[in-house]
Amino acid sequence: MQSKIEDRQSKTLEWEVLPPEDRHRRKSVEPMFKWVSLIMDRLIHIPGIKRRLGLNPILDLVPGLGDIAAALVSVSVLVYGIRRGIPKVLLGRMALNVLINEIVGIIPIVGSIFAFWFTANTRNYDLLREHLDTPRRSTKGDKIFVGAVLGLVVVVILAGIIGTFLILQAIAKLISG
């Protein structure tokens, strides 16, 4: 009889009351930006120097496709930020970092070295953390600036995709004769 009572007690579920989830809380986006920053900019420790190497400079070594892949990862995190309610001004500054990284990244070898130095995703993560500590109000001019920068990011990525396909088509023609 005693063992049956103990078995019942061990199967009893314990409930915990949690406060309601605050849907407007923006700190929940921070882990996503932190992981992308870590993987794309700071994944591998290089002995002898203080900087770390991420996938972004390595991907940039692949002409065309590497730049596009790195930009798509960075932009996908920005899209996630848009969906989670990050202010447009902050997203514009982050998009500008991605744009600068993508434009310089088009240049072979130099783009990889620049990506290693510039670390756009880490800069974006730092901007997000700074904003969460001291949120600011955006103005109409800020919103226009954000729209222009996001438009440029899209144009550069599309140009990179088109350029890559044109280069691959030219290479295919040379190979096939």
List keywords for this structure.
mainly alpha; globular; 71% helix; single chain; 2% strand; 177 residues
Descriptive notes:
By secondary structure, this protein is an all-alpha fold. It has helices spanning 2-11, 30-41, 55-60, 65-83, 88-105, 110-118, 120-133, 140-176, and strands at residues 44-45, 52-53. A two-stranded antiparallel sheet has the order 1-2. β1 and β2 form a beta hairpin. The chain is globular and about 70 Å long.
Regarding quaternary structure, what we see is: single chain
Task: Label the overall shape.
Answer: globular
Please give the number of β-strands: 2
Give me the secondary-structure category: mainly alpha
User: pLDDT under 50 segments (min length 5)?
Assistant: 22-26
* N-to-C series of helices and strands: HHEEHHHHHH
- Our measurement of the CA-to-CA distance between the termini, rounded to an integer number of angstroms, reads 88 Å
Total of DSSP H or I helical runs spanning 4+ residues: 8
Strand portion, in percent? under 5%
Largest β sheet strand count, sense and barrel closure: 2 strands, antiparallel
What is the overall pLDDT average? 80
Roughly how many Å is the radius of gyration?
A: 23 Å
Helix content: over 70%
Order of strands in the sheet with most strands: 1-2
